[in-house]
């Protein structure tokens, strides 16, 4: 089916040896919901290690409820992990308000819905200048920095947009304003949550191209949470596939998307239109983070286990009883949290 | 490479111009509502009347000792609305009384709306995303609001006015301190809606603190609702002032519409059928309240955030 | 041959505060019984307006001209009583956002039964059985009839919507972005379900989506709309595989095929935004964003023209682009 040569090209730019710019270490987020003690806690993020190297774009792929949005919020310091740490340039993130303020100059958020991300009562200029005003008040070069950020984000000539209100812009232009508002503080990392999901198909590519340009020209790193595997193929260097609060497969885009090993990743790829081959449609509903199954968390829906293939490989019992563990988050090997895949490869890396 | 060829003509000036344009389109929209225009016209006439009162009425005529007419004269060419028990012109009294009634109405509203907005935004903001301490503050504020809300306004105002020294300032404070809970509730609900918008999350991610979110994002989005609420509250406050004066809690030396009504009752105007003493002040109160309500409703319709966001 | 659905020169214009905004500007579509037609386009292309016009569900502010024939009857001129009968029993719509289309305080079974009772398609005492049967057809256990909508997941609610649409055994189903808000895996489940039902029951389906690749996968034919017009129409595989109109090409390339080296680190999109429907540019409306526009495009508004016709001038595919039709000929 897939006929692509495996990442023969140079690997991810910047993915080399240096310290990752952003790193999640054993991050766990547990939400306890209201009503008395009877309710189970929801394990939204259940142990994730993930690195973002300088100048690297990492796609965090998964279905709704898999924890990718929560992980993004943790990395932004908007959510405090129940356990585990976030490291920025090697230093653990502090949660005092001064630490967070300093951190937020350097890591910026781009949200899914550009219409909601802009205050309808503020002009483009005000929305972009907001970050500057929060950090260090109004400066003499404010206007210049705002226009520079706008044209950087592809709104040219910027003067035409300064005094517009969000409702006067198209969806794509609004998302560019949001990106300009992030760029104006000259951050090192962008954390984007479905940055193109609510945009029109023809505009989508333009925004993705902008993110690539920002990486190439400014060396910006990005973590992009999305359900869209095509987005990962379009712009990411590495992909982390998330299922029920864990990263279940991690590697370069070419490795993971062209030669998927985890049965979940395989199923996700097989149901894409034009995938070729037989689609593996997983039955049932998206899983509930309040009821994480024991053993491998994917085993109740796993087509490999159901077909008996895992049994033939001699791992069926382990699938049901043994947690395959947390994958190491760094660049390097293509890793999979799957007993069956490891048995096939004859290796078992990354068992924590 | 992307530095702009020419710096823009001061973005701040541009923003100011946009604001002015927005204001103008707002005025146009308002002008299309007939009821609102009638209310506004009535209001302006009343304010002009109150301001011009010293030109129309000689304050000396309003003292009990130098009253120009005889007691209880029915309406005539000299006294279009008759005279009271001291022989003062009722029309003069009503013109003069508009000053206190309007002043109390406006100032009490300022007090209550400021208080209500402050409490509402604080409770809404910290309730939505302020951690455990914030939620505690928020629920304390809201319990306080609820407590004031269920307390009969009038009883509280009477009690306050009785405790505090007599005077117009006391009346304003008493009304202001009792009418705010409704505003607080309304503002809190609106604040919660604004806090749920992604741009508030974006502001947090940019590093904005509580004050930034409340002042920069919540306030401008809550303000239209507050404005509409204000006009409605002025009517309420004027009525409250009249009621307090009517109950004899006010300052007996100031002339207000409620005060006139109270004197009429004391003078036995009801039982002796002296309608010109009772009806005109009552009508004046009703008309002002109506004018403000008309304006308030029209404002509400023009700035309804649901309608505006669709543009 | 009578087609199941025949839309001819459909125009829809919304009257709004300032003036008239044309949303659909002359659309022709046709669908044979049991066939599947995909209608692709972005927001504002007019595709959802077409769907609503098919059953006269547009608001009063819309002026509709042209003809919409459903099995030979003109829906636009039909009398009210007949229209009510046609809605649901001849043609049913599955909307996106199933949560808002279901009444939260009624049980799922009652809601599926509603069209059955309104149109009296089955005797009252058989309604319960029919509801159970419909639920099983869409892959839900019959016991789910007793649930309220909030007890179901998004995918399950969309299945309920499909069961409701099937209730009166319509000959046409209009699926308007029926899978858009769903996760990849659930979307695959629903698409598989729709494909199966259409094939088993011989129902015609008009499927509307912004995702051309989904339509190409599900439908026999697709039509691509831009700014209120169909700009390309033909067999799904051909339109997707070898698009003749540059907009269809851009829409097809927007969602990359994974494994395709050409799209790796090279997202493709179109510069600019769709035109303001109240003020479309002169000539070809797509010209301002078109990568292959020529001078003539500023003045010529090309009609749909056969792509690579055979000797008799026939072709299964038509596109509205000067690069397809001979320049200067057939110009309106």
From TrEMBL, chain A:
Q: Name one GO molecular function term.
A: ATP hydrolysis activity
| Top-level taxonomic group | Bacteria
- Please indicate if the UniProt record lists Transport as a keyword: yes
Keyword NADP: yes or no?
A: no
- Give the ABC transporter domain ranges: 22-269
Q: What is this protein called?
A: Peptide/nickel transport system ATP-binding protein
> What biological-process GO terms show up in the record?
peptide transport; transmembrane transport
| Alphabetic keyword roster | ATP-binding, Nucleotide-binding, Transport
Please give the family membership noted in the entry.
Belongs to the ABC transporter superfamily.
The UniProt entry, under PROSITE patterns, shows:
ABC_TRANSPORTER_1, ABC_TRANSPORTER_2
In terms of SMART domains, this protein maps to: AAA
- The annotated region (Disordered) lies at 1-21
Which ranges are annotated Low complexity under compositional bias?
1-12
Automatic annotation (TrEMBL), chain B:
A Gene Ontology annotation in the biological process aspect, one of them, is: transmembrane transport
The record's section on InterPro entries has: MetI-like, MetI-like_sf, OppC_N
Q: Which domain of life is it from?
A: Bacteria
Give the matching PANTHER family.
Answer: OPPC IN A BINDING PROTEIN-DEPENDENT TRANSPORT SYSTEM
| Entry membrane topology | Multi-pass membrane protein
What broad class describes the main subcellular location of this protein?
membrane
Q: What keywords were assigned to this record?
A: Membrane, Transmembrane, Transmembrane helix, Transport
Q: Which residues form the ABC transmembrane type-1 domain?
A: 98-296
Q: This protein is called what? A: Peptide/nickel transport system permease protein
The family classification in the record reads: Belongs to the binding-protein-dependent transport system permease family.
Keyword Magnesium appears in the UniProt entry: no
Species, as recorded: Nocardiopsis flavescens
For this record, the Gene Ontology CC terms, alphabetical, are: plasma membrane
Q: Which residues cross the membrane?
A: 100-123, 144-164, 170-187, 218-240, 274-299
Q: Can you say where in the cell this protein is located?
A: Cell membrane; Membrane
UniProtKB/TrEMBL annotation, chain C:
| InterPro entries registered for this protein in UniProt | AAA+_ATPase, ABC_Ni/Peptide_Import, ABC_transporter-like_ATP-bd, ABC_transporter-like_CS, Oligopep_ABC_C, P-loop_NTPase
- Write down the superkingdom of origin: Bacteria
Query: What does the entry list under GO cellular component?
Result: plasma membrane
Membrane topology (UniProt): Peripheral membrane protein
Q: Where is the protein situated, by its record's location annotation?
A: Cell membrane
- Where does the record place the ABC transporter domain? 7-252
- Keywords of the record: ATP-binding, Cell membrane, Membrane, Nucleotide-binding, Transport
Q: Where is the composition biased (Pro residues)?
A: 272-283
Where do the record's region annotations for Disordered lie?
262-283
Looking up SUPFAM superfamilies in the UniProt record yields: P-loop containing nucleoside triphosphate hydrolases
- Is Membrane a UniProt keyword of this protein? yes
Matching PANTHER family? DIPEPTIDE TRANSPORT ATP-BINDING PROTEIN DPPD (PTHR43297:SF2), OLIGOPEPTIDE TRANSPORT ATP-BINDING PROTEIN APPD (PTHR43297)
Know the name of this protein?
Peptide/nickel transport system ATP-binding protein
Organism per entry: Nocardiopsis flavescens
């Amino acid at each position: 089916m897939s006929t692509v040569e495996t990442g023969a090209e140079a690997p991810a730019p910047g993915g080399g040896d240096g310290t990752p710019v952003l790193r999640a270490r054993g991050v766990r987020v547990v939400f306890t919901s209201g009503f008395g003690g009877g309710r189970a806690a929801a394990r939204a993020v259940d142990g994730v290690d993930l690195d973002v190297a300088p100048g690297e774009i990492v796609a965090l792929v998964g279905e709704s409820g898999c924890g990718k949005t929560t992980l993004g919020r943790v990395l932004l310091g908007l959510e405090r992990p129940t356990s585990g740490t976030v490291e920025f340039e090697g230093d653990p993130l502090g949660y005092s308000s001064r630490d967070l303020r300093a951190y937020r100059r350097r890591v910026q958020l781009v949200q899914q819905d550009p219409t909601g991300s802009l205050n309808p009562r503020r002009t483009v200029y005000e929305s972009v200048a907001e970050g500057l005003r929060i950090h260090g008040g109004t400066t003499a070069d404010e206007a210049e920095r705002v226009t520079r950020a706008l044209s950087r984000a592809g709104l040219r000539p910027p003067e035409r947009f300064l005094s517009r209100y969000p409702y006067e812009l198209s969806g794509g232009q609004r998302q560019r304003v949001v990106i300009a508002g992030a760029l104006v503080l000259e951050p090192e990392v962008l954390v984007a949550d479905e940055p193109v999901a609510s945009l029109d198909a023809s505009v989508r590519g333009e925004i993705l191209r902008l993110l690539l340009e920002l990486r190439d020209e400014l060396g910006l790193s990005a973590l992009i949470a999305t359900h869209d595997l095509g987005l990962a193929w379009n712009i990411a260097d590495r992909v982390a596939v998330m299922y029920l609060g864990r990263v279940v497969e991690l590697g370069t885009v070419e490795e993971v998307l062209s030669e998927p090993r985890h049965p979940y990743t395989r199923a996700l790829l097989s149901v894409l239109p034009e995938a070729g081959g037989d689609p593996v449609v997983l039955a049932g509903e998206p899983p509930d983070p309040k009821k994480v199954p024991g053993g491998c968390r994917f085993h109740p829906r796993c087509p490999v286990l159901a077909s008996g293939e895992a049994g033939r490989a001699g791992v069926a019992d382990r699938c049901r009883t043994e947690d395959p563990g947390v994958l190491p988050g760094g660049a390097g090997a293509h890793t999979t949290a799957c007993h069956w895949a490891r048995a096939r490869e004859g290796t078992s890396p990354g068992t924590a | 490479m992307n530095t702009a060829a020419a710096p823009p003509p001061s973005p701040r000036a541009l923003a100011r111009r946009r604001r002015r344009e927005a204001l103008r389109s707002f005025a146009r929209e308002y002008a299309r509502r007939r009821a609102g225009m009638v209310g506004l016209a009535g209001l302006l006439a009343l304010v002009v009347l109150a301001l011009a009162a010293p030109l129309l009425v000689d304050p000396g005529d309003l003292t009990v000792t130098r009253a120009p007419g005889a007691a209880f004269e029915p309406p005539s060419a000299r006294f279009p609305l008759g005279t009271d028990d001291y022989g003062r012109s009722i029309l003069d009294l009503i013109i003069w009384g508009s000053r206190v009634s309007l002043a109390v109405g406006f100032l009490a509203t300022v007090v209550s709306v400021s208080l209500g907005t402050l409490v509402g935004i604080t409770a809404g903001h910290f309730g939505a995303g302020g951690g455990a301490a914030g939620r505690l503050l928020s629920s304390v504020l809201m319990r306080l609001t609820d407590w004031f809300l269920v307390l009969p306004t009038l009883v509280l105002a009477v009690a306050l006015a009785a405790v505090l020294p007599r005077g117009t300032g006391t009346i304003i404070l008493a009304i202001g301190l009792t009418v705010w809970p409704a505003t607080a509730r309304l503002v809190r609900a609106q604040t919660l809606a604004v806090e749920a918008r992604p741009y508030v999350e974006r502001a947090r991610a940019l590093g904005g603190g509580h004050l930034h979110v409340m002042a920069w994002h919540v306030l401008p989005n809550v303000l239209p609702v507050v404005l509409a609420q204000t006009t409605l509250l002025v009517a309420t406050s004027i009525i409250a002032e009249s009621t307090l004066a009517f109950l004899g809690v006010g300052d007996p030396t100031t002339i207000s519409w409620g005060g006139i009504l109270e004197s009429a009752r004391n003078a036995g105007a009801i039982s002796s059928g002296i309608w010109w003493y009772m009806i005109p002040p009552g009508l004046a109160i009703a008309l002002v309240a109506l004018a403000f309500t008309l304006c308030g409703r029209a404002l509400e319709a023009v700035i309804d955030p649901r309608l505006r966001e669709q543009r | 041959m009578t087609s199941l659905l025949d839309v001819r020169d459909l125009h829809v214009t919304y009257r709004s505060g300032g003036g008239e905004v044309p949303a659909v500007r002359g659309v022709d579509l046709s669908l044979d019984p049991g066939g599947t037609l995909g209608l692709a386009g972005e927001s504002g292309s007019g595709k959802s307006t077409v769907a609503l016009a098919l059953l006269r569900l547009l608001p009063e502010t819309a002026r509709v001209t042209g003809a919409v024939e459903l099995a030979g009857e003109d829906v636009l001129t039909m009398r009210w009583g007949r229209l009510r009968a046609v809605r649901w029993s001849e043609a049913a719509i599955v909307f996106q956002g199933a949560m808002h289309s279901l009444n939260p305080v009624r049980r799922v079974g009652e809601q599926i039964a509603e069209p059955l009772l309104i149109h009296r398609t089955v005797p009252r005492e058989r309604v319960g059985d029919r509801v159970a049967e419909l639920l099983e057809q869409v892959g839900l256990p019959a016991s789910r009839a007793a649930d309220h909508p909030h007890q179901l997941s998004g995918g399950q609610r969309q299945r309920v919507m499909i069961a409701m649409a099937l209730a009166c055994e319509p000959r046409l189903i209009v699926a308007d972005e029926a899978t858009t808000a769903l996760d990849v895996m659930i979307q695959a489940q629903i698409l598989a379900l729709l494909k199966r039902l259409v094939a088993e029951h011989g129902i015609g389906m008009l499927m509307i989506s912004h995702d051309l690749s989904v339509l190409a996968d599900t439908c026999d034919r697709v039509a691509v709309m831009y700014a209120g017009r169909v700009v390309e129409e033909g067999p799904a595989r051909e339109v997707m595989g070898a698009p003749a109109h540059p907009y269809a090409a851009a829409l097809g390339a927007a969602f990359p095929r994974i494994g395709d080296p050409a799209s790796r680190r090279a997202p493709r999109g179109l510069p600019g935004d769709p035109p303001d429907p109240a003020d479309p540019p002169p000539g070809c409306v797509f010209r301002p964003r078109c990568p292959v526009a020529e001078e003539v495009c500023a003045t010529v508004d090309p009609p749909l023209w056969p792509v690579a016709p055979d000797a008799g001038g026939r072709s299964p595919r038509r596109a509205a682009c000067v690069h397809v039709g001979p320049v200067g000929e057939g110009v309106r």
